[in-house]
Design a protein that fits this description.
Bound molecules: phosphoenolpyruvate, magnesium ion
Structural class: alpha/beta
Distance between the termini: 9 Å
Shape: globular
Strand content: 5-15%
Order of helices and strands: EHEHEHHEHEHHEHHEHEHHH
Largest sheet: 8 strands, parallel, barrel
Number of strands: 8
């Protein structure tokens, strides 16, 4: 989207007034990890582990899992890597945890919900993540997808602790979780907003349907209000809230998210340089003003237009 100059990223995200905003990468395999390092990513904000196992009919052994996770972790010595536990179901079926037929797969047994029927799969995955973490220099954080309630968050954090994984967080990608974030973040040590699913569930618009693109955008003021609510829940517990959905990689939306209280952004590696450039040109105070401006619009189109008009760097 950004016109003209080719930008690079120096590996340290910050606002114009020097407020740190870690800029991290979303990865699914060692090849993407290498691309993320190349692009200057400060670490990984979302490691989608289910991609290591798509197409498998049986659960990979703990040994296989350790090798798969190390393929990403080893690329980030001394850096944060947020490993997401299996997000199977809906568009990503895995026969060893997901059901064959559900009338509404996006509303079905997916993400952390698969651990209710298959607790041993989660246990073995946490065992493998802990073993991989012990074998590498990366700073390993763990998070669960599709958390809906504080009880689910408490249970996940407890299972992580049993494996010695003390940086245990949750994704906020269900509106209920955003609205209950102050209770969820009393348990979880951090949260990461999955704005792709959060938008889908807020707008009741299938994220896969191109025809619903104008509903399926993080610019929707209702989605931004849930981002703000999530950040308030983080603030009362002194817990960081990040974004790892597509919204984080939109250079005009990134300062809005920071203004809403988000402390780090995780995105496709090729978006890092443009996001870094916009943040470096925008003060924290300006981010807060842009956030308020976007929240006060009646539509996604109006929010996008109002914010872009204030960001000449993107012209
Ligand atoms: C999201 O929902 O925004 C997210 C980052 O997770 P995924 O795209 O893997 O569902
Ligand atoms: Mg998601």
């Amino acid at each position: 989207e950004t016109a003209g100059t080719v930008r690079t990223f120096d590996g340290h995200g910050r606002t114009a007034d020097g407020h740190d905003v870690a800029l991290l990468a979303n990865v699914a395999d060692p090849k993407a990890a290498a691309a993320a390092v190349e692009a200057g990513a400060e670490g990984v904000g979302l490691f989608r582990t289910e991609f290591c196992f798509l197409g498998r009919t049986e659960e990979p052994s703990v040994t296989e899992q350790v090798a798969a996770y190390r393929g990403v972790l080893d690329a980030f010595p001394g850096r944060k890597v947020v490993v997401r536990t299996l997000d199977a179901g809906a568009d990503k079926p895995l026969p060893f945890v997901t059901a064959d037929h559900e009338p509404n797969p996006a509303l079905g047994i997916r993400g952390l919900r698969t651990a209710v029927g298959h607790p041993e799969v989660l246990e073995r995955q946490l065992e493998a993540i802990a073993a991989a973490a012990a074998a590498t220099e990366a700073d390993v954080w763990v998070m669960a997808p599709m958390v809906a309630t504080p009880d689910e968050a408490a249970h996940f954090v407890e299972r992580c602790a049993a494996h010695g994984l003390n940086r245990a967080g949750v994704m906020i990608e269900i509106p209920a979780a955003a609205l209950q974030s102050r209770f969820i973040l009393a348990h979880a040590t951090f949260a990461s907003l999955g704005t792709n699913d959060l938008t889908q569930y807020t707008m009741a618009a299938d994220r896969e349907l191109a025809g619903l693109a104008e509903l399926s955008t993080g610019w929707q003021p209702a989605v931004l209000a849930l981002v703000e609510a999530s950040c308030l829940g983080g603030a009362v517990n002194d817990r960081p809230v990040s974004v790892c959905g597509e919204a984080a990689g939109d250079p005009a939306l990134a300062p809005v998210l920071v203004g809403l209280g988000v402390s780090s952004l995780s995105m496709t590696p090729r978006a890092l340089a443009d996001v870094a450039a916009v943040l470096a040109a925008t003060s924290s105070e300006e981010c807060a003003r842009l956030a308020r401006l976007a929240l006060d619009q009646p539509s996604a189109a109006a929010a996008r237009a109002a914010v872009r008009a204030e960001l000449p760097i993107l012209d």
